[in-house]
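Marked as duplicate of an earlier ticket. Keeping the data here for the record.
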Amino acid sequence: MFKNKKILFISARFFNYEEQIKCKLEELGAEVYFEDERPSNSFLSKLFIRVYPRIIHEKIKMYYEDIFNRYREKEIDYIFFIKAEAVPKESLEKIIDCHPDAKKILYLWDSLHYNPNAKKVLELFDVVYSFDLDDCDSEKKLRYQPLFYSDPFKKEFECNIDYDWCFIGSIHTDRYKILRRLIIESKKKNFNYYIYCYYPSKALYFARCLFDWSFLSFTYKQVKFKSLTLDEISEIMSRSNVIVDINRKMQRGMTMRSIETLGAKKKLLTTNNVNDIKGIFPSDSVGYLERENVELDIHFLKNNVSKKNFLNSNYSVEGWLKKIFNNV
């Protein structure tokens, strides 16, 4: 499927997941040309792309003009986009027109609610996948395809269980409120826990603190501005009995952390719709976490689950790539 195929892979940089995908494609025999979807990953650049795209529109057009010129003479078998948050429609049309025989794939690992630009370019792709079930229900073009876990989460660690539960993730939206309730509940019941709250920008963090004192009171001792590597996340998860997953309210689909929990063969405690996860996780390894009424079940947190019950190869990065490239 991938042997000697030339793939123009354009994706936002996101915690090194794009590098995991690129390396796996190359391992499977493809020749991959990677380009960052954004001209810059600075705080201001991301802000303008998401909130004030007109301000940065010309800069983005020039950036994609450079991409077009780099590959206009190359033979391309696949144009593979992840997210399509920044690319102007006219720039994408120009790249596609230059490679009329290339198959065009888009994967959305954000909900359309948070990525309005993607709606403008859906029609240009042969196939579009999304992890979000509600988006797939509302957009006929979209096919449902859950996310993946990368190779670090396949590792088998020989270590003690130090934590009853752990949370590792960005501290956006209402996550801090739920974590605060989890901490209070854990202290009452003497549960051990590990929390790593990441925030991508100091400027944005302090700006939010000015308007949300409750956020400041929780995060000033917790917040980190350096993200963990996937290997570090995998190692911490291996020392935890249960992995806590708190999804965005406007999203309905298994998060990356949920899939990584599957790869690590750990139990999942999630605010997501548990019915959407049935059949993917063993039935005794998923618990529902209410956002407002947080309760922790000692039996769920303490009891072990047999790793033999986890059948998860379809959700590895290799299995994920084979699925989305096989259907175009």
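See parent ticket for discussion. The chain has a mean pLDDT of 92.
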